[in-house]
Amino acid sequence: MEDFFELKKNNSDLRTEILAGITTFLAAMYIIVVNPTILCKTGMPFNGVLTATIIVSAFSTIMMGIYAKNPILVAPGMGLNAFFTYSVVLNMGVRWETALGSVFWAGIVFLILSVFNVRTYIIKAIPQQIRYAISVGIGLFIALIGFLNAKFIVSDPATFLRLGKFDVITITFLAGFLITALLIVRKVKGALIIGIIATTVLAIPIGRLYGSVAGANYGIPTLVTWKGLFADPDFSLIMKMDLLGSLKLSIWPITFAILFTDMFDSLSTFVGVSEASNLVDLNGEPRNVKASLIVDAFSTTISGIFGTSAGTAYIESATGIEEGGRTGLTALIAGLLFLPFMFISPLLSNVPEIATAPALIIVGVFMMKPVLKINWSSFDDAIPCFLSLFLIPLTYSITQGIIWGFLSWTILKFAVGKKNEITPMLIVIDAFAILALII
Q: Under DSSP, is residue 76 helix (H, G, I), strand (E, B) or coil?
């Protein structure tokens, strides 16, 4: 195992990789419950989506570890599932079977683009300065998700966002965050895992010994509520996609939107995580990029087959990487950890969102490092970078951040006569970006 994953060459060891894999899984395991919660609004069975989510997450992540040998977790993407549910099915009135067909065909196109290295060329077309900004923007995005999950920041009709109430939820979160931060400062191995477990334990008394979170927890006064241990897997959604219906001309814009959104979510996540953690090759490109993108395409393809929205690389992978994960063994461990939850999925509901919130915020801190590499003194660099890193968290979309970063980069570089910094592939990307905005 050490030889296959080249642990010594990557300055890692078996214990570190296992801890990193567990950390990555714990940070992203919410998708097992959250994804079916969103997709079931389309009429799809909750348990069927849950089983599909686990299968896609497990096999995609395991493949990332064994084939691409990168410590990146792949699972049905947040944002992509919302687009599938609210935009495609509920707003456009497309049957969920047809939407699954669109996911499948988008995956096939992904696969073709990846095999013929087109997506690799796209990555190389991303300006280095924009890559730094994407990494920082993703870090801010991760931190924002953490603060929102902890109810430390909440929505407000007047100011959009504001500080949440100082109640048992925020106090528990702050205690968990302090524990996690102290462990990080003291460089304790497995700090993020310990922090997640500690915060979960601290949340157990809420609604039992003191306080209540019913107002923010669907009427349930407790955060950690035992809902049983075992549940049978539901394979009812396998091959339920409508392949012929999704080939109609009227559905092509939907397939393109899934293709574009998934492509740039995965590309920007992959570039950002690689840049922040120095997982790059001798040319400064993301490590094993072609193999990793093929895995991402494979994940989207099987998502349609098994019955869920498109798969993508997860920004939460940064949690395991910051724990020291440097090889595919991290992804292999994370992927294997999904499989038992086909039978014990109710156990995941015992880990509240506030338990993973401290880890997500700490990762946001880690991913701020590349901000020092941005050329802030040159405004034709600084403005596109600022738009990317600022819009990623505020639009709640990695894709929107990268689109506006690309477009502003191209326009400003052209205006100041630096046409040599605009590659032909970047022009092609800009054209598709504009088309995506129109759609």
A: strand
What is the bridge-based pairing of β-strands 153-156 and 160-163? antiparallel
pLDDT tens track for 320-347: 888 889 899 999 999 999 999 888 877 7
Pinpoint the alpha helices (H) of 40-186. Answer: 46-63, 80-82, 96-115, 118-125, 128-149, 168-185
Mapped onto helix, strand or coil, the DSSP state of residue 317 is helix
**Amino acid letter for position 52:** A
Total structural domains in the chain? 1
Distance of alpha carbon 439 from alpha carbon 436, whole angstroms: 5
pTM of the model: 0.73
- Other beta carbons within 10 angstroms of residue 114's beta carbon come to 22
Res 218 pLDDT > 60: no
Q: Which residues of 118-156 are buried (b: 16+ CB within 10 A; e: fewer)?
A: ebbebbbbbbebbbbbbbbbbbbbbbbbbbbbbbbbeee
In which domain, by residue range, is 186 found? 2-438
Q: pLDDT at position 162, please?
A: 92
- SS3 at position 311: strand
Alpha helices in 150-251 (DSSP H): 168-185, 191-203
Q: What is the pLDDT of residues 178-217, one digit of tens each?
A: 999 999 899 887 788 788 889 989 988 988 888 787 766 6
Give 358: exposed, middle or buried? Use CB within 10 Å, 0-12, 13-18, 19+.
buried
